[in-house]
Amino acid sequence: MADIFEKIKKNRGPIGQYSKGVHGYFTFPKLEGELGNKMVFRGKECLVWSLNNYLGLANHPEIRKADKEAAEQYGLAYPMGARMMTGQTSEHEMLENEIAEFMGFPDSILLNFGYQGMVSAIDCLVDRNDIIVYDSESHACILDGMRLHNGKRFVFKHNDMDSFDKQMTNATRLAETTGGGILVITEGVFGMAGDQGKLKEIVDFRKSGKYDFRLFVDDAHGFGTLGKTGQGAGEEQGVQGEIDVLFGTFAKAMASVGGFLCANEDIVEYFRYNMRSQMYAKSLPMTITVGARKRLEMLRTRPEIKAQLWTIATALKKGLGEAGFDLGEANSVVTPVFMKGDLAEATNLTYDLRENHNIFCSIVIYPVVPKDVIMLRLIPTAVHTLEDVNYTVETFKKIKTKLDAGEYKSDEMAAVEVDDKKNMK
Hints:
The strands form 3 sheets. A 7-stranded mixed beta sheet has the order 4-10-9-8-7-5-6. It has 2 domains: 4-54 and 303-404, Aspartate Aminotransferase, domain 1 (Alpha-Beta Complex), CATH 3.90.1150.10; 61-301, Type I PLP-dependent aspartate aminotransferase-like (Major domain) (Aspartate Aminotransferase, domain 2, 3-Layer(aba) Sandwich), CATH 3.40.640. It has 15 helices and 14 strands. The model is unreliable at 418-425 (pLDDT under 50). The protein is 41% helix and 15% strand. By secondary structure, it is an alpha/beta fold.
């Protein structure tokens, strides 16, 4: 018989195997100070491109004031209990109504956490006779939700409509045998590579009458950033009304905690009485609920904030593109920069960026990207400046020159000193 803990010691996971050398620096770094374009990392001010604070609301004075007043009035305890029992309030209902109206759906339901909500919503929607068809680069919350599904699932190549067509044929054939339905799951914006999901193309398959399915879209990164009014990728692509279930989060454009699902009234009611993560979990705290209403108000009534975000995002993409960097297929504000190099080069390059150029951005390595790829992910926000953009582009030119010259090659990753408490020295 194996000992579970001994097994864990021998297999730390694809990223965990490097934990002793990267914890506190490349993973679990501490960014301190007020949330914004510049924060403190290891005692030095850095230009930060790693916060999903798209609209810059995290530290906006009106938001801080609303959060403070709500905290003073309600604290973090109220309401106590799950919404079905003792956690229902008028504020929760008003927020749901406002979200539904803004997003152009008949109804919506609040979620305590986005990740948890997606997992539970998938589990709630399908039974063992139903079939799921999903994009190969779907977020981990979608993959974890499907782990709870006892039925069959088919994966199509990322944004590949020929692959989608093939897998839908397989799913349709199987559904005719099981008597179940088909749920297609994709994303409005894929958060790593920054490309939008092919929502219009998927909808066109259904409009053509070739396939019958329901469409579930995770638009965590599109909500608040895409579309004329900020509804997201569905609005951007002109198919908002064709989405059956839409997920959005408060954790990105709205700089808070929690999320929501939009659908018709029957489906939302079904969620309320059957989605286990909401039925058996404490209600979203009133402070967060009231704060979310203020954030939604600003998202809805301050188009200049989203316009400023896109001014920065467009300038960043233009500058990096003109400098010859590979930005993949990104057509959202998320800005990935792809370069060739191994793990050691990736860490040495990132170390150079942070220590010598005071730029903090996220590094993405295998298994998220292939082993010979370095991906630096930049998240522009409405609080960045064009000066920030220009400095970053010029700095990236320098590190690319050094990478091409082999200056980051090493047999080891960048050496980082860590004390016994996993804090940087």
